């Protein structure tokens, strides 16, 4: 990249973005409001789908709001900290997005057991560039609606992100960050991929499971 990158602002962005990511909506709502940790139910994942399947109800909206707002805050803080050309701001957005996802997936305050990053990742992608978000979100929605496999749409979102990044920016640094972010998402869905291949993956239903 033809511009100078300062070290310490990116260290600060990484720390703040990771801290934001650690506020996992499904864990916070289930553990501290419902007094029943979502990770003890269903797939054991601290994400929106498992929360809805397990508890349902209006508190699902709180989970959504928490995971979206923390992603928006992480990327916004990055753009506020970086005082540089537009290219550096884009890099800061990707950098913040990566560490926010790491916080969501591996939150230090919740024994490093978090979610798979789809909801927060979707918000991050939208904050980075609406064109990339269009590729990821449309593919996700089409696959999830047609097949009722949320995981299939999620894998598409993760896999398509670095590809769309390259076609839009043609920047090797952004591509590597995109691969890291998309790769983390696909990696977190490795169990779902196995179940999809073996025909044992659960389909999404608007009726949550009652235990």
Rg, Å, rounded: 17 Å
Mean pLDDT: 91
Computed structural class: mainly alpha
Distance between the termini: 54 Å
Which word captures the global form?
Answer: globular
Q: Can you count the helices?
A: 10
How many strands, which pairing sense, and closed or not: the largest β-sheet? none
Approximate helicity band: over 70%
| Strand tally | 0
Proportion of residues in β-strands:
under 5%
Sequence of secondary-structure elements: HHHHHHHHHH
* Quaternary status: single chain
Low-confidence parts: none
Concise overview:
The chain is mainly α and 211 residues long. Helices cover 71% and strands 0% of the residues.
Question: Which key phrases capture this entry?
Answer:
0% strand; single chain; mainly alpha; 71% helix; 211 residues
